[in-house]
Amino acid sequence: MHKHHSALGLATALRPVNPVTLIRPHAARRAARFFVEKFPGKTLYAVKANPSPDLIRLLWDSGVTHYDVASIAEVRMVRETLPAAVLCFMHPVKAEEAIAEAYFEHDVRTFSLDSMEELEKIVRATEGASDLTLCVRLRVSSEHSKLSLASKFGIAPSESKELLFAARQAADALGICFHVGSQAMTPDAYAQAMERVRQAIVEAAVTVDVIDVGGGFPSSYPGMEPPPLELYFETIHRAFESLPISYSAELWAEPGRALCAEYSSLVVRVEKRRGDELFINDGAYGALFDAAHVGWRFPVSLLREPDSRAKPMAFSFYGPTCDDLDHMTGPFMLPADVQAGDYLEIGMLGAYGCAMRTGFNGFGRAETVEVADEPMVSLYAAGTEEVASNVVTL
Ligand SMILES: Cc1ncc(COP(=O)(O)O)c(C=O)c1O
Q: Is residue 55 within 8 Å of 298, Cβ to Cβ?
């Protein structure tokens, strides 16, 4: 892998024709250490957010030993990359063949479920195994989050009694899990979800061994600057301590975005300017799916030397493919004199960015280069003690 000292240095020295994915291992290492040291339980990395084997190795070296995998391809890849990792298959609807392969060939013992059918599938596929940790996924509100996960999965807490009871019979350890939606903007999201967990435990009157609060931990984006992560951890810890569970019960979390958003950014070239619209060489089918499809705003900066002195103005982007869908509204604030041939850095694309890249229309190619400079925004950069002041305001 090529290395360079900074995004600016790379753009000015190399003038790359294709988009370049920049990776910053130090940023992912810092995020991992933060979770490992401060989250009051076990941290499972949600592999879907960025399935790069390099990243997964780096998280392992930083102390992340558990991985939330959601497909058999993720199971195989993580097992091959990290033979000693603990894998938890946390997709509530799985192919029976995938469950069997995960259990018998890859040593997976933890599975999530949200229906009787799935429970029956797991029991059948594992041939009635007696060493399973089964996590029943509860449906909780996504109202405090930017991306909802409330409709597709999860059993309503009021309907969970029978399933919890049946899972208890089949499991060696019984867990309850949920997901408050991605980019949860307040710790209250977890406090409310934990109340639902309480209700479900009381109604089912079962012994629960694991509480898994899922993902949803936020990163910082323009217009979406969250409170310090410590407040989330404190809220979760307090709620966990007050649940009617055995004193040896474990607390788990499955962060995706918060562990890898700062790991990666993208250098793109402006191929054309039309007023306040910039035609760039990556887009909706590349690493910018969320910018196009859910209007996500990412930090941007012009990589030019000497620096532009023009005032910032709002731009939208068009990606390189042939259709109008390949459009990112932004607004993206850049100096008013941006022109064709300029390079831009688009930050915070380590989560659900590079992972979504396709080859549609022949534009999938992007080289990866490691850089040593800081990510454009960081929740972790200013040291881990003074967290209240380390959110960069955009
Ligand atoms: C089951 C599960 N866990 C964890 C995550 C990671 O969520 P986030 O990236 O918001 O932390 C997801 C994301 O979809 C998920 O479906």
A: no
